Structure formats: C-alpha cells, structure tokens
Amino acid sequence: MIERESAILAPIPEAESLVGELREQYDPRSAQGVPTHITILFPFKHPDEIKEEDIMNLRTAIVPYQQFDFEFSHVNTYPGVVFLEPTNRDRFISITKKLVEVFPGNLPYGGQFPNINPHLTIGHKLGDRVEECSQKAELIGPKLPLRARARNILLMTSQNGKWTVRERFFLS
C-alpha cells in the first residue's frame, strides 16, 4: 500500500546546525527528507487531491505575509515530544489560521489539540526516550538564543515515507 500525505511547513535552515544531529536521532521525519521546520498545517490534503486551484489559493493566502524575525530561547517538551519554542508565535499562528480559513476541512493535527502551538520538533514519538532526548537537547542551551527569519513556506508531500517539496511560497 502506498502511504501518502502532505504538510505545510516553514523551513528554518538557521537551526539545522544546532539541532540537525538530534533530529537525525530522535525525529524519524528528518531521515525522510523533512527539513528543520515549524509546522504550519499538518495534515493537509492527500497529495492526489491537491489541484492547481489549491496551489493558487495557498499562494494567495501566504504571499501577503511579510518575512519576519524570531528566535528560539529554550528547549521545551510535550508528552513524547522535545522541541524549541519560537518567539513571534502569533505570526505563525496567524498563517495557520488563515490557511484553515481557506481550507476549513484541514485542521491543525486533525483537530487533535485545542490550541495552535508553533514549535520546532527536535524529537517526537519518543516513548521512553523523552528524558534521553531532552537531556541531550538541553546541551544546546548555551547556544541559545538562536535567531532566525521566516522567509518562505513549503508545501511538502510524501510517498512511502519520502518527503519532497511540491511548492515553495515566498513571504513578501
């Protein structure tokens, strides 16, 4: 069976040198081609259902947003997840809410959580390895804050666990 899904992400290349090795160990999506990022909307449509009209609607919704600066100042956790939390969270939340307005059938994380919490995942689906990942992630603390800039948004699709960029939308 061919497994396919899609996501809308803000790539954060500035963070790759800081968290790349940890992501390789603790985030299975890293090995599947997903760059260091903040999730904007996941899941999105099934890749076969994404039409040119959807691409145009994404572009129309995303392009008016200005590029913006933010930083990561500390490591945090959710159950089973270790992450960096960005400042300027409201900017990421605004983009997510706009996309949900345009695509109301696509709620963040399938509507599983009541709030939108932008974050850069270091490790997830960790089970009993949360403490191990968290301790290693704390070692990056002296290198924080990390300053970054949101410049573009990616529409990524996967097939059998391999993710590729389908479209890139540049912020103005």
Strand content: 25-35%
- The rough form would be described as globular
The termini sit apart by: 40 Å
The helix-strand sequence is EHHEHEEHEHEEE
Taking all residues together, what is the mean pLDDT? Answer: 95
| DSSP helical segment count | 5
* Major sheet: arrangement of strands: 2-1-7-8
Strand segment count: 8
The poorly predicted ranges are: none
Largest sheet data = 4 strands, antiparallel
Give an overview of the whole structure.
The protein has 172 residues and is of the alpha+beta class. Helix content is 28%, strand content 33%. A 4-stranded antiparallel sheet has the order 2-1-7-8. A 4-stranded antiparallel sheet has the order 5-4-3-6. β3 (68-78) and β4 form a beta hairpin. α3 (52-62) runs antiparallel to α4. The longest helix is centred in the middle third of the chain and has 14 residues, at 89-102. The radius of gyration is 16 Å and the shape is globular.
List the helices and strands and how they pair.
Elements: E1 4-11, H1 16-26, H2 28-31, E2 37-41, H3 52-62, E3 68-78, E4 81-86, H4 89-102, E5 120-123, H5 130-138, E6 146-150, E7 152-159, E8 162-170
Brief overview:
Helices cover 28% and strands 33% of the residues.
Could you name the key traits of this structure?
28% helix; 5 helices; single chain; alpha+beta
